[in-house]
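Margin note from the TA: students keep mixing up input and output lines. Inputs are the sequences; the output is the structure of the whole complex. Example:
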Amino acid sequence: MSSVRSAPPSKPRARPRPRRLSAGDRLFLAVIVGIPVIALLVFVWLPALASIGLSFTSWDGISLSDIHWIGLDNYQEIFTNYPPFWPAVQHNVVWLLFTALLPTPFGIFLAYQLDRKIRFTRIYQTAIFLPMVLSLAVVGFIWEIIYNPDNGLLNGILNGVAPGHHIDWLGDPNLNLWAVLVASAWRHTGYIMILYLAGLKGFDPALKEAASLDGANERQTFLRVVFPALKPVNIIILVVTVMESLRAFDIVYVLGGGVGSKPGMELLSLLITDNIIGESSHIGYGSALAVVLLVVSLLAIGTFLVQTFRKEDQ
Amino acid sequence: MTLQSRTPSPFRAPSRRNVVRGALGVGAAALAAPVLTACGGGPAADPKTVTFGSNGADATPKKAYAGVTGAFTKDSGLKVKTNTVDHDTFQKSISNYLQGTPDDVFTWFAGYRMQFFAKKGLAHPVDDVWDKIGSGFSDAAKQLSKGQDGKYYFVPLYNYPWAVFYRKSVFQERGYQPPATWSAFTALAKQMKKDGLSPIASGYGGGDSWSILGAFDYLNLRANGYDFHMSLMRGEVSWTDKRTSRTLDLWREIAPYYQEGAGGRSWQDAAQSLLDKKSGMAVIGLFLGQQVTDESLRDDIDFFPFPTIDPSFGQDTVEAPTDGFMLSRKPKNLDGSNKLLEFLGSAKAENLYMGVDPSNVAVNSGADTSKYNALQKKSAELISSAKHITQFADRDSDPGFISTVVLPGLTQWLGHPDDGSALLKKIESQRSRFFTA
């Protein structure tokens, strides 16, 4: 990339000197690199750093002179005495595990089946991928109708099978998270399926053939040949799954009625908005929560990147 | 909370990017700015124009406000530039809005919620206006319009009472009597359950958890009185106080009579179940009338005030949230704004408004009440006979405290109403975070 500048000083004589950039080129480069860099700094790094700074303060967001430095108080309060915090952490973890263990493998399974050129495969593909085309908020509406306690689909069926029984899908704190997870999985499966299917389409069939010549059965072929060979897709899927779990927000927001965290459905992202958006905002407190989420995300992403690159280097 | 906000369209959910931007603190102002300050710059210098920020985005209030401002223009020759923003968005972004370039006059709510922004210096006092409109308002209304510094900051337009609503025909058919005391009330609920009704219609699912606060407020007001309730709301007494636990104990007595599946139902669906004669009663505000589509049904709806618990307090308090107007801190056209507020505080403006939107009661005593329907008349009587008027928990208290601490706690508890002391401890531990300043 930067061979022009970082080339050792002894070498230039050996090679023809690279042509100097004309003023126009330099201007072009400055604009094309400079603007994104400034945008990145202003819109990503500055707010992130400001947020970290604000997390050590107490501020109602109204006048700058009201910002009080309170050190680690916000964090101490959050970790020791903020009732929804630990449930939120727990729910984020549940979200991650659930998404990684059920809809993701299921999406892969579907992709593998659909790749075998079964009949009507296009129809299946379309049907399973369809939810992905919808915004997660719209998915929320659809499931809101299904879960409605009075005239929803599920309670309608339930009432037919066992009259008088009534399940409060979205209201019961022990149940609502799972109800939301099912709705989110409904969409996630199609997403994973299409990603994996794309990978399978580019897979060299000769490898499969070779495996079957060697006497491998379906299961062995998939686990030992196909799955490892699709490493790039697997990495994308892993990243997508982790990201979707950490940023889980919109569907919970919609199914929770659009007013932040609900008992049983607390998530870190919702707690942040609870504290920051609204009439009496606690910018400092919310920022501290945001920093917690940032650290968790960085840990997840960092671990993953280190792992991947270490292997690549070897 | 007002009725218009009660049909939150999830399309309104802020996009993730916006939320994150907000979460990062810095972009918070940007969130509201493009929507709310759309007409900030242009008309600034125009002495013939007043800008008006309205949260009445639903068809009915929008039409009503348009009628009112149109009449003002006719009277005064001043143009009103209305900037309507969706109700929930307006509420959520109010502090950014007021710090940016707000409209001269804007819609808001009475009570602590108004006083909060007055205290923060984000509103302009309107004492001059009150010198002229004051005669039209009762002392209770005057009290509601003052900030903590004793100056006026608010001009009321309408209010609506909370009570226990029922259908006359259901009570007639089954021979029920509107109960006046707590024991009669619980006995009636028990009887209704026996008769196969859901005694108390309830839907506090999703974004409607605010609706349970009506019951909480009344229980606390009836059992512990106005003064205790207000101190509790303002964060001046401990939530672990014996009196608060008593409120929860009373609530636990009627919790079994709540409609099943309430945690997943909207208030509209709960109200509908009352209209469909599936539920017997509902603790709700007059805005229940919004659910009525068949006018003949309206005559069949009645209410009784929340029953007496402690005879020494009786039924002296009525919960009647008041909506009205405030003046932003640096109005661009102060004279014009004062004239507009004067007009908005007049009986004429109230008549114009109520003519379009009949689900409220005018606050100005000079307003024409001859066209009121039976419910409005009864509401007006109920409110005028009250010794104290409360707003609503989320207006009498810090709305952040109510929405992020009290509401999740109460809804969770109401799902399994066991001993409330753990819940009260949890709420109490958060109190100091909101009421230090």
